[in-house]
Request: fold
Amino acid sequence: MNYQSDEKGYYGTFGGAFIPEMMQQNISQLQSCYIEIIESDSFKEEFKTLLSDYAGRPSPLYYSDRLSDHYKAHIYLKREDLNHTGSHKINNTIGQILLAKRLGKTRIIAETGAGQHGVATATVCARAGLECIVYMGAVDVARQSPNVEKMKMLGAEVRPVQSGSKTLKDATNEAIRDWINNPVDTHYIIGSVVGPHPYPDMVARFQSVISEEIRIQLKEKTGRETPDYVIACVGGGSNAAGSFYHFLNNPEVKLIAVEAGGKGVDTGESAATTQLGRPGILHGSRSLLMQTADGQVIEPYSISAGLDYPGIGPMHANLFKTHRAQFLSATDDQALKAALYLSQKEGIIPALESAHALAALEMIEFKPDDVVVVNVSGRGDKDMETFLKYFQSVK
Ligand SMILES: *Cc1c(COP(=O)(O)O)cnc(C)c1O
Reply:
C-alpha cells in the first residue's frame, strides 16, 4: 500500500487541487517545480543548515522515566517544543521561505489560528527580509495576544478577519482571497498538510525531519529504528504527518492520531473530524470535513486554538480510511490533566495541542516492552492563561 500522494496530489480518493480559476497560475507553478526545487542538493543543504543552526535541530528524543513507570512501557518524548519559536511549525516555514526565495517572490502571506504558524512565518520573513502579512480571525487575535505582539515585533502585519466565526477557517479564506488578488509577487505559506496539491505533500516532506530523526535517535538509544507506537495530535495534521512519515511503510509501527474531542464528541462542541466528518472539499482539497447535511461547514470547537479546524489533511483522511492509523480523541479536560501531569512529573509544560497526544497514553493498553514515542509538538507558554483559568476552577 502506498500512503504517499500520487503526482496529482491524491492519497487514495482524498487530496487533489480544487481551486478557483484565479489561483490556477500560482498552484500550477508550484506543482510543476516544487519537487525539483526541494529535492535539489543546494536546497537540501541550506534547509538542513537552517534547521540545525537556526531552529536548533535535531530536537532531542527524551526517555521519560516517570511516564514509563506510570504507563508501564518505554515512553519517549520527541521534543519539538524545544525548537526555535516553540513548536514544529518552524520546520515548514523554513522550507517554504527557501522555496519562495527561489521562486523570486517578495511578499509572504499566511493564515494562523493560535498564532504559532503566524509567529513561525513572521520569524523566517524577518530573516529573509520579505514583507509578511498574517491573516488571523478576530476572535483568535483577542485570545492569543502574546503571539500577536510577537508577530508585530518581528515586523509582520497582522490583519484581523471579521467574517464567519472569526477563527482559523475564516483566516484561511481571507489568505486565499489575497493570493488570488496578488498572484505574481506573493507566496502563500500554508501552515499544515492541508490546501490544494502540492501543499499537503510539500508540508509533509518538510515536517518529515521529525520521523527521520526519531529513527536515528531510537537506533542510538535502543538498537532498533522502529518503535511500537508513534502518537501525535492532529489539527490539520502536520506534526502527525512529520512524525508518521518514515514509518508509514513499517506496518508493525502503530500510528496513533489524536483529535480534539472538545467538550465531548457528541456535545456539538468538538473538533474530532474523523468521527464527525464526511468527505467534502475545503480550502482546495478533498478530505474529511465536519459539515451539515447540505454541506455547510460546522464550526469546530476545542480549548486548543491549534486543533480548532473543521477538516484534516488528505493524507490523514486516507490513513483513517485504510486503517493504517488509529484515530482517538481527547477532550479538553483530558488534555488539561495530561498537561498538568507532564508538568509535574517531568518539568515540561506542553502546548495544549500536544497535551491531547499525551492524553492518549491513558487510553492505550501497552505491553511492558513496548517502545512508545509521543510527539510533543510545542511548548505551553502561549497557553498559560488557559491553564491558570482551569486550575483555579478545579481547586
Ligand atoms: C499548530 C499546532 C498544532 C496543530 O497543527 P498540525 O498541523 O496538526 O500539527 C499542534 N501542536 C502545536 C504546538 C501547534 O502549534
